[in-house]
Every structure is written in structure tokens, then in C-alpha cells.
Specification:
By secondary structure, this protein is an alpha+beta fold. It has helices at residues 24-31, 34-37, 47-57, 117-132, 147-155, 184-190, and strands at residues 9-10, 15-18, 61-64, 67-77, 83-96, 101-108, 137-143, 159-170, 173-183.
Length: 195
């Protein structure tokens, strides 16, 4: 898979585009929140930490012969149709070339939970993974206490493959992890005429 010829990607209600340095304020506004970072590997980000993290992800724009990561800013459209307010951080990355496997990840600003934006954006990333990327299998993982993320993966048609008990020591505590996955043929079976 190579980067789409033209960014941004558009879904019914979202504009998905690569991150830029101009996203720092909104990016920090997302990752400074304790409720966002609760089930992530890091704690709330300082401005300098967010700047460093954003600096790393601005180059994650393709999955292809020389690139293994796609990290996109999920934005609401502005009045002119361009990318407006940044509300999320959606990612797809290759985990195995040999076995044609990838993983998805998603973070959505809590002010925008419950509106179907994560489902919409991640549906588009699964489409990219299977149609453009040629992947055989896509995985998603979450802390077992993160019920909304687990529900989202189930709504995407992913099946729970594992519940690892106290498999990671994160933020000074043992935590359980859920692993979900979907195969390309299973994804195709979920398609409806409007998808």
C-alpha cells in the first residue's frame, strides 16, 4: 500500500489527513487529558512531550515498500469542506510483512464520544488495510477495562481472540489486555452496499 494519491481522505462526516506541526495545540489538548491517557502506555503529555510525539508521527503517512505506518488526524470538516477541528488520532501500522498483518489504533477526544466518529474513521482504515494494503489480518488491542474500545472493535466486525490476564505492568499496576482481529475475508463479508 502506498499513501493515497491525494489527502485528505473523506468519510461521510470526517476528514482524515496526515498530522502536521500546526496540529500541536489540538494534539496537546487531546493528550494532556487524564481521561484520554487512562488506558494508554503514557501519562498526560506536557507540551514538550506532545511536540516530540507529534514530530515523530508527522512522517507516518504510508504503508508501502519503505514505510510501515499511517497515522491520521481525524477532523470535522470546516465550512468550506477542508479539514477543520481535530478530534482524533487514528492509526494503521504493519506488524508483519511475511504474514501480511497490521494493527489499528484509535484515540478520540471525549467531547466527541458517542457520535460514531471512531466507527466511521476506523471503518475507513480497515478499508485501506484490506483493499489498498492487501493485508490478510488486522488486529486491535485494548486494556480490558476499556469497554468502549472493545465495543468499537466488535462493531467493526472484529472477533475477540484473547484476554491476557495481567500481562502488562503499566503505570504502576498490572493490567489485562484484550486482543481483537479480523481477516480480509471476514471484513468483506461485513460489507453492505453503502459501505
Amino acid at each position: 500500500m502506498t499513501a493515497p494519491t491525494r489527502f485528505p481522505l473523506r468519510t461521510q462526516r470526517l476528514v482524515l489527513r496526515p498530522f502536521t506541526g500546526e496540529d500541536l495545540a489540538a494534539f496537546h489538548g487531546l493528550y494532556v487529558r487524564d481521561d484520554v491517557n487512562r488506558y494508554l502506555y503514557w501519562r498526560s503529555q506536557t507540551l514538550d512531550e506532545a511536540r516530540a510525539m507529534l514530530g515523530r508521527i508527522t512522517s507516518m503517512t504510508a504503508i508501502g515498500p519503505d514505510a510501515d505506518q499511517l497515522r491520521l488526524a481525524a477532523c470535522l470538516p470546516a465550512a468550506d469542506g477542508s479539514a477543520g477541528q481535530l478530534i482524533g488520532d487514528f492509526s494503521l501500522w504493519r506488524t508483519s510483512r511475511e504474514h501480511q498483518q497490521a494493527e489499528i489504533g484509535f484515540v478520540l477526544h471525549p467531547d466527541h464520544h458517542g457520535h460514531g466518529y471512531a466507527l466511521e474513521g476506523m471503518t475507513e482504515l480497515l478499508r485501506l488495510a484490506f483493499t489498498d494494503g492487501g493485508f490478510h489480518r488486522v488486529v486491535g488491542r485494548c486494556d480490558a477495562r476499556n469497554a468502549p474500545s472493545a465495543r468499537l472493535m466488535e462493531r467493526l466486525g472484529m472477533r475477540r481472540e484473547a484476554h491476557f490476564v495481567e500481562n502488562e505492568f503499566v503505570k504502576d499496576e498490572w493490567s489485562d489486555e484484550l486482543v481483537y482481529a479480523i481477516l480480509e475475508r471476514e471484513w468483506r463479508a461485513t460489507l453492505t452496499p453503502d459501505r
